[in-house]
Design brief:
Blueprint: H1 3-34, H2 50-69, H3 74-78, H4 80-84, H5 93-107, H6 109-112, E1 131-139, H7 144-154, E2 160-166, E3 171-177, H8 183-191, E4 196-203
């Protein structure tokens, strides 16, 4: 296979690997925008293998650029077909450059995914009569986008006074007025995002 075609195919494979590596954080954004919360955590299983996918992507793109930039051999320069055939746009350096930039955007998606979520505003209540605080252990969150998705759903409930969600700790610490909402309602709101409440306990 000619180097131009090989680098083109390598670039496409690298882009595909980057998209797969970021599915765990892309899916929650799409599910929120589409109003289909249940699919948000569908690709959370990718998170443990994400570092390997990133390494694979970088390796493939490095190989593609090497094929594109390396000097041609005498055999390639003497080949008449090499001289007569003009590479297509998809085999050009510009195309590979576009693929590389888009790949970087995909790989870094988890770091800026939170900007796609609306600002989470807790509905303010004049009085909180029976405020209690609970910690909810949550399965499936992998990035700040996941946190924002959970916050978005829980904040819609009445009586929420404080709300902290952490994908690193895999939990949500929520203070709420027990007279206005309850643990079951909060659990249902979290589970509706596609993530799952594993356990919950009261914090004194």
């Amino acid at each position: 296979m000619k180097p131009a075609k090989l680098s083109s195919k390598s670039g496409k494979v690298g882009l595909l690997a980057a998209i797969i590596a970021s599915l765990c954080c892309i899916t929650p954004v799409f599910s929120l925008l589409a109003g289909v919360g249940g699919i948000a955590a569908s690709f959370s299983w990718i998170e443990p293998v994400r570092p390997y996918l990133i390494a694979l992507t970088i390796g493939i793109l490095a190989f593609a650029w090497y094929q594109k930039m390396k000097p041609r051999t005498y055999e390639e320069m003497d080949c008449a077909c090499e001289e007569d055939e003009k590479p297509s746009f998809w085999q050009s350096k510009i195309s590979l450059g576009i693929v590389t930039v888009f790949t970087i955007v995909m790989l870094s998606f988890p770091s800026y995914s939170h900007i796609f979520y609306p600002d989470t505003q807790i509905a303010q209540t004049e009085t909180y009569l029976e405020t209690i605080k609970y910690e909810f252990s949550i399965i499936g969150m992998t990035c700040t986008g996941c946190e924002e998705h959970v916050k978005h759903e829980v904040a819609r409930l009445p009586g929420i006074s404080t709300l902290e969600v952490s994908h690193e700790n895999g939990n949500a610490i929520i203070a709420f007025d027990h007279a206005q909402t309850n643990i079951d309602s909060i659990t249902i709101a979290i589970n509706s995002t596609g993530y799952e409440v594993k356990s919950k306990k009261e914090i004194k």
